[in-house]
Each structure stands twice: as structure tokens, then as C-alpha cells.
């Protein structure tokens, strides 16, 4: 019996040892967050937005509070999609006490800019700020804002989007160039009927003046370059580091004006990108390009061209046109690995042409066109474009004919026209791009059906930003039982947070979209004057659970009278408990 007892005890000891070893092994596999080193926690902090950082860690133990308040911690603040109450709370405990530690700051409404940078003399207190993004700001604040931004010693990236028109932009550039560490700047403002993006290296006819401020400029980008710019374009001092240039011409700049521009000012280029939208066949003359490159661009390694326009020919136009294009199939171009393709169709004595480089050079956007006749250089090898993030599709037909794939695409823009029943189109589209990874969708069509939107959104459940633009009023046709089920799934599962309806919107359309996009936080729409009030009522009804997440409403092209009516209605009918309303240029901003 003694021997048996000893064996039993030995078994118990071994069993407990095994259990303890198993528990210890499990402990090694799992680490508690508070056991991480300070260095590793700071790396995690770098990945979080400042508001989330304070919400999560400020009320924990003293260790995390000390980490949050350490003077070396740099904070990223993105306040672009907050309710008014949340913003005020973040401003109070996240921004105002930590101005000196904020590294990047993104504000996205006229209200936010007023609240953070008022008065402007507080701006120098953001002493560690490196990146500043301000959307929808009022231009009347711009002069003072830029004056104080010049006092920030580390500001290297500045993006400004103005909510109104601003004409005297040349006053701004001297201030912008005085920001001591600035490396990148983009100014977006209302110009004419649309919005125009102007990098600081661009201005329609004052390029030489701008370049005089930037002696270390490496990359010059000129959009909508006009002949006036050429006339004053010869620069007394050309930046030695200027090796990259991009030009866009829209009908006013001929090749015989472009050639002396290059000869006099851009002989050191390594990279030339040029986009031409005009009817000028001289840009398709390969021999002219060869002479210019050999004599004036000896260092050129990247030649990226896109020409879109009509070429007018004589009776033998088609043969004449192909002879012109075939000049690009020569050893001069092959030796440099510069290959091209073109799409064209003939109409009477003119040929519509899209001629473009097929070496993408890490191009981030690509356009599929629908011309029925396509000629591709025989040396073309690439069918997969890994660098493209934004795909534009000119017409539905171009999808079925596409031989390429865009595996990293996240932004999709559909143009011109798409049919109501587009099941086959969606199938073909999925072959070109992975629809599940799309986050931004823009649909700009002449005549858009709601059925089409349903079909596209059903296959793209991760869309966060949706823009709809229909030249004619959006058609809300009766939907089938199958589409009703799809609509239910889309409403429950889509992730759309920002919705823009540029044209074609009615009060009924707004109601349909708010029921469809139940997580939307921001709506920007252009709606007819006689439907402003009814639309606002629909969107702000307190019992409307579908608009529960909505925080910012922007209505475009309002008169002052319409603004005052809506302002009175919101307060008189108590549509919102707490809100701010502002009128900038011709837009109403309502924030709550």
C-alpha cells in the first residue's frame, strides 16, 4: 500500500507541474497592455488621433496620464467629422491645453477654424505644428491667418480650401513663401463656375514671379497654362534643382509657343509630363518632339504625354493620321523605353484622338475611354497597374473592352452614361478592380437612375465617400422586389459617411438618400430654391433615426433671403437643440 501511495503522490505532483507549465506558457503568449514599455506605448500613440488618444487613456492610471502629458509627445488632431458638442469637448481638453504639442491639425468647416484660430494671434502657440489642413474657410481670414503662420518654425505642409471666391491671390503668395520650412502647399478656391486647385508653384500668368520666391524648387506644376504666361515666361534665374515639370494646356497654347518655353527655361528637366486638351495636331508630330528633346532636354528620362482632341484632315485623313502617329514607332522612342497607344474614331473630315504614354511612371490615376478603335504599341507589356489609386471610366462600353487590372484602386469615378440594369457591367468592373476595397465613389452622368446607384453600391459595401452628379434630375423609378432586398442590405451595411449631390437633387431624392445612407455624417447638396425648406425639414426631423449620425449640412447656391428663411425655420420650429449656422459666399453651413 505504501508503494501505491507513493505512486499516486508522484502522479499528482507531475500533473500539477504540467498544469503550472501550461499556465506559464499561456502567460508568455499574452501580454497586458500596461506591461508594455513606454517606448512601445508611444509608438502606439503615434498611430492614434489625438481625440481618441485622450478619450481612451486620460482617465486611466497615473502612468498613462503622465505619458499623455509628457512634453515630448507629439499629437495628431483630425477634427473633420465631429458633432458640435464633441468638438467643443475636444477643444477644451485636447487642443487648448496642448497647442504646443500638436504636430498635425485638420479642420473642416468655417466653424472649426473660427473656434481654434480666434484670435489669429494665438497661432504661434502651435509651435510644433508641421501639417495644417483647413477646409471650407472664409477668405476674409486668410491674410491674418497667413501672417501668423509665417511665425511657425516647423510648418512644412499647408493645404487650404476656401469656401468662397478669392480673386487677388497674388497678395497671398509672398506670405506663403515666407513660411520658413514650407515644402508643400495647395490652395483650393472658387473660380468661375467650379473649384480650381492651385499648387503654390502655379499661377496663370505670373510663373516667373512665383519662381523667384522658390530658388530650391524641384517640381513645377502648371495647370491651365495660357499664352499670356508664355509671353512673360523667360525667367532671369531658373532654379538649379528644377528637374520635374508638369503642364496642362486647354486650347490656348500651341506647340510653337511651348517649344521656346522649354528651350529657354527647362533644359535641365529629368521628367516632363504634359496633358493637352485642344485641337492641334502639332503636338502629335514625333519629329518635332525628337528635335526638341535632343537639343534642349538632354537629361530627360521620363516623357509622359496625353493628348485629347480633334485632328482635322483632308480627304485621305485616316491614312494621313496613321502616318503621323506611326512616327512614334521608331528607334528614338524604343531606345528610351517610351511607348504609346491611341484610341480614335472618325467623323466626316475629323478624327477624335486620345494619344497617351503607356509607361505609367507610378501614375496614380488612369482613365478608360470608350473609343471603338484602339491601336497599342506592339512593345506594350504592362496589363496590371499597381500604382493606380483612382480610376476614371469614360463610358460603360470601355469596361467591357478593358484588358487591364488595377488591383490597388480605392477611388472610382463613373462618367457620362450608364444603363439602368448594369449587372453585366458590374461583373466586368469586378474583373478590372476589386470592388470590395473601394472607399470613394463618384458618379457623374448625364441622366442617372437610382437603380444604377443601387446596383453599384450593392457591390461596393466599403464606400465611405459618395458623390452623385446628374445633369438631369435623378430618376426614382419603381424598384423590383429584388432591388428592394438589395436596398435593405445596402441601408444596413454601407459605410457612407460623406454624401455630395452636386446636381439633380430634389427633396424626394434627399429623403431617399438619407434612408439609404444611415451612417452619413456630412451632406453637401445643390437643390432647387423652392425645395430648400422641405429638404431641411426631412433631414432634421428628430424622429428620423436614419439621420441620427448626421452632423453637418451644406446647401449650395443659396441667396441671402433663402438663408435667413432657413435660419428662422430651424430656430422657430426647434429642429435642433443646439446648432451653429453660417452663410459663406453662397453656401449655408449648419452644424450640430
From TrEMBL:
Protein name as catalogued: F-box domain-containing protein
Organism listed in the record: Rotaria socialis
Amino acid at each position: 500500500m505504501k508503494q501505491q501511495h507513493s505512486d499516486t503522490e508522484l502522479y499528482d505532483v507531475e500533473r500539477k507541474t504540467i498544469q503550472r507549465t501550461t499556465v506559464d506558457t499561456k502567460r508568455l503568449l499574452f501580454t497586458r497592455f500596461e506591461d508594455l514599455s513606454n517606448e512601445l506605448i508611444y509608438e502606439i500613440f503615434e498611430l492614434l488621433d489625438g481625440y481618441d488618444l485622450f478619450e481612451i487613456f486620460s482617465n486611466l492610471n497615473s502612468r498613462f496620464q503622465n505619458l499623455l502629458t509628457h512634453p515630448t509627445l507629439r499629437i495628431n488632431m483630425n477634427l473633420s467629422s465631429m458633432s458640435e458638442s464633441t468638438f467643443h469637448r475636444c477643444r477644451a481638453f485636447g487642443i487648448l491645453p496642448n497647442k504646443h504639442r500638436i504636430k498635425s491639425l485638420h479642420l473642416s468647416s468655417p466653424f472649426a477654424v473660427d473656434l481654434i484660430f480666434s484670435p489669429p494671434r494665438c497661432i504661434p502657440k502651435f509651435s510644433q505644428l508641421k501639417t495644417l489642413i483647413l477646409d471650407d474657410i472664409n477668405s476674409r481670414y486668410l491674410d491674418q491667418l497667413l501672417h501668423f503662420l509665417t511665425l511657425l518654425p516647423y510648418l512644412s505642409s499647408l493645404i487650404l480650401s476656401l469656401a468662397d471666391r478669392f480673386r487677388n491671390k497674388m497678395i497671398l503668395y509672398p506670405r506663403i513663401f515666407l513660411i520658413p520650412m514650407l515644402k508643400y502647399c495647395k490652395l483650393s478656391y472658387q473660380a468661375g463656375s467650379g473649384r480650381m486647385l492651385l499648387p503654390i508653384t502655379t499661377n496663370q500668368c505670373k510663373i516667373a514671379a512665383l519662381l523667384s520666391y522658390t530658388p530650391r524648387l524641384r517640381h513645377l506644376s502648371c495647370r491651365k497654362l495660357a499664352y499670356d504666361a508664355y509671353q512673360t515666361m523667360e525667367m532671369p534665374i531658373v532654379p538649379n534643382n528644377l528637374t520635374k515639370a508638369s503642364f496642362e494646356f486647354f486650347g490656348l497654347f500651341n506647340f510653337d509657343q511651348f517649344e521656346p518655353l522649354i528651350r529657354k527655361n527647362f533644359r535641365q528637366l529629368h521628367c516632363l509630363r504634359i496633358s493637352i486638351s485642344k485641337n492641334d495636331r502639332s503636338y502629335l508630330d514625333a519629329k518635332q518632339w525628337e528635335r526638341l528633346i535632343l537639343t534642349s532636354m538632354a537629361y530627360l528620362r521620363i516623357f509622359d504625354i496625353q493628348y485629347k482632341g480633334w485632328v482635322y484632315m483632308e480627304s485621305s485623313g485616316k491614312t494621313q493620321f496613321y502616318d503621323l502617329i506611326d512616327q512614334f514607332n521608331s528607334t528614338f522612342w524604343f531606345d528610351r523605353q517610351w511607348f504609346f497607344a491611341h484610341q480614335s474614331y472618325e467623323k466626316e473630315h475629323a478624327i477624335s484622338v486620345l494619344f497617351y504614354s503607356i509607361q505609367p511612371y507610378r501614375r496614380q490615376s488612369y482613365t478608360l475611354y470608350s473609343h471603338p478603335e484602339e491601336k497599342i504599341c506592339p512593345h506594350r507589356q504592362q496589363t496590371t497597374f499597381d500604382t493606380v489609386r483612382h480610376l476614371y471610366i469614360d463610358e460603360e462600353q470601355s469596361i467591357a473592352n478593358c484588358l487591364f487590372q488595377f488591383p490597388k484602386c480605392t477611388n472610382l469615378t463613373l462618367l457620362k452614361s450608364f444603363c439602368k440594369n448594369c449587372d453585366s457591367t458590374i461583373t466586368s468592373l469586378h474583373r478590372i478592380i476589386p470592388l470590395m476595397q473601394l472607399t470613394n465613389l463618384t458618379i457623374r452622368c448625364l441622366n442617372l437612375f437610382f437603380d444604377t446607384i443601387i446596383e453599384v453600391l450593392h457591390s461596393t459595401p466599403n464606400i465611405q465617400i459618395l458623390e452623385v452628379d446628374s445633369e438631369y434630375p435623378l430618376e426614382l423609378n419603381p424598384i423590383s422586389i429584388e432591388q428592394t432586398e438589395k436596398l435593405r442590405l445596402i441601408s444596413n451595411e454601407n459605410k457612407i459617411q460623406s454624401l455630395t449631390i452636386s446636381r439633380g437633387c430634389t427633396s424626394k431624392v434627399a429623403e431617399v438618400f438619407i434612408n439609404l445612407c444611415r451612417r452619413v455624417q456630412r451632406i453637401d447638396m445643390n437643390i432647387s430654391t423652392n425645395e430648400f425648406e422641405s429638404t431641411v425639414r426631412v433631414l432634421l426631423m428628430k424622429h428620423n433615426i436614419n439621420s441620427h449620425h448626421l452632423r453637418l449640412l451644406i446647401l449650395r447656391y443659396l441667396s441671402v433671403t433663402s438663408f435667413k428663411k432657413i435660419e428662422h425655420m430651424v430656430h422657430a420650429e426647434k429642429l435642433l437643440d443646439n446648432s451653429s449656422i453660417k452663410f459663406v459666399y453662397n453656401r449655408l453651413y449648419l452644424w450640430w
